[in-house]
Specification:
400 residues; alpha/beta; 8-stranded mixed sheet; 14% strand
């Protein structure tokens, strides 16, 4: 028997889709509400979930631990309201759950809208064992308690589901706008570092936030301290190396390359290490090491063919090498996956022009310009229009 568990508050807009995604797998769905003032409870009950109500304890770990007390299943699956389970993965999950020595199943989570590093591994499917508890601030996890349990009960093992299992739609810029998620993350990680200086987990999360805000110089010492304490070939060590590479790139590209190579030496799922692979390839292309850059990017597209950025980068590299036909094929794959990417249409237009397809190039330039206009980038649209107009006749109405 599998119990689905989640913590919610004012999630009426997204809750129904989340619950619908797990209905085929879950024997019971338990939604713990922490004070919704919208229709969240009604939506949950209409979807067939049992609703329990508790006061918000101030952090997710104690809330999730309370939620565990309401469950009856042998297994527990935990999602947030902005996540959905991919139906294609359910047979694989059932097969893994049927193995008697499996304690935890790590799930690949795909960040919708994330270009560079869209995958992460999360421990969200596990046996309802009394020793398994949630811990850590903000991004709560069961990993600490699982490590302790494995030390005392070594007969258990952790399994990995090799195909993407969860779709996460909560970190797109348009969804984060107007929320305090970034500030809550900053406060939680800083509090953790005050208590445990150099903690690898908190250093990785806070360092990544700093980089996203352009604070590269401030992030570097923080990430280095985290690496000093990171042990073994862990996902935390990989994340620290990836973020350190990003922070070093503006002023020390060679140091960034070294970080990415170290990150790729850690034996992780190829989708998890996609960010390091694509970043390493991009830096190598800048340094003129085109053959290795192409080989790395080709591996990325083979291991994660659903990620548009890999195909886009491959198109750039192949065009630079002069292989126009192969570049066009890569750009076409990227456009299929990410049709609203103006830069991809623009670069495809250039490749079409180099290949002698004037009409195709004209159409691709038009598409890129239209996308820039509709995406609120009129200056970029006008600049591209002027550049393209000097190469091919666009026959487009001028921008007002």
């Amino acid at each position: 028997m599998l119990s689905f568990s989640m913590i919610v508050r004012n999630e009426e807009a997204r809750l129904a889709d989340c619950l619908a995604s797990v209905r085929e797998l879950a024997d019971e769905m338990v939604v713990v509400d922490t004070g919704s003032t919208d229709a969240t409870i009604a939506v949950a009950e209409a979807a067939g979930a049992r609703v329990e109500q508790v006061e918000w304890p101030g952090d997710f770990a104690p809330a999730r631990n309370t939620a565990l007390t309401f469950l009856n299943g042998d297994w527990v699956l935990v999602l947030d309201a902005d996540e959905q389970l991919r139906p294609e993965v359910i047979p694989s999950l059932k097969a893994l759950m049927a193995q008697p020595d499996v304690l935890v199943i790590n799930l690949l989570r795909y960040e919708v809208g994330a270009a560079m590093a869209p995958y992460s591994s999360v421990s969200r499917l596990f046996r309802r064992h009394p020793a398994i508890r949630w811990s850590r601030p903000y991004h709560s996890m069961i990993d600490d308690s699982v490590g302790e349990l494995l030390a005392s009960e070594p007969q258990w093992r952790i399994a990995d589901c090799s195909e993407p299992a969860i779709l996460h739609d909560g970190y797109r810029p348009e969804l984060l706008a107007g929320t305090d998620k970034a500030e809550r993350l900053r406060q939680a990680m800083q509090s953790e570092l005050d208590t445990r200086p150099g903690d690898p987990y908190a250093s990785a999360k806070l360092g990544g936030l700093m980089i996203s805000e352009g604070q590269h110089d401030q992030a570097i010492p923080l990430l280095r301290r985290g690496l000093d304490q990171a042990t073994g070939d862990s996902a935390e060590r990989y994340e620290l190396l990836l973020h350190l590479g990003l922070a070093l790139t503006p002023r020390d590209p060679s140091g960034a390359v070294a970080c990415y190579r170290q990150a790729l030496d850690i034996p992780l799922d190829a989708r998890i290490s996609l960010g390091a692979r694509l970043n390493l390839a991009a830096r190598l292309m800048e340094q003129g090491e085109l053959d290795e850059a192409i080989a790395l990017t080709q591996t990325a597209t083979q291991r994660a063919p659903e990620v548009a950025l890999g195909w886009y980068n491959l198109g750039l590299m192949l065009r630079r090498r002069g292989d126009i036909a192969a570049a066009l094929e890569a750009y076409s794959r990227a456009v299929e996956l990410d049709p609203d990417n103006a830069a991809c249409h623009q670069n495809r237009a250039v490749a079409l022009l180099l290949g002698g397809d004037i009409e195709g190039a004209r159409a691709a330039f038009r598409t890129a310009i239209t996308l820039l206009e509709t995406q609120g980038r009129p200056v970029d649209a006008q600049a591209l229009r002027s550049k393209a107009q000097g190469i091919v006749k666009l026959d487009m109405e001028p921008i007002a």
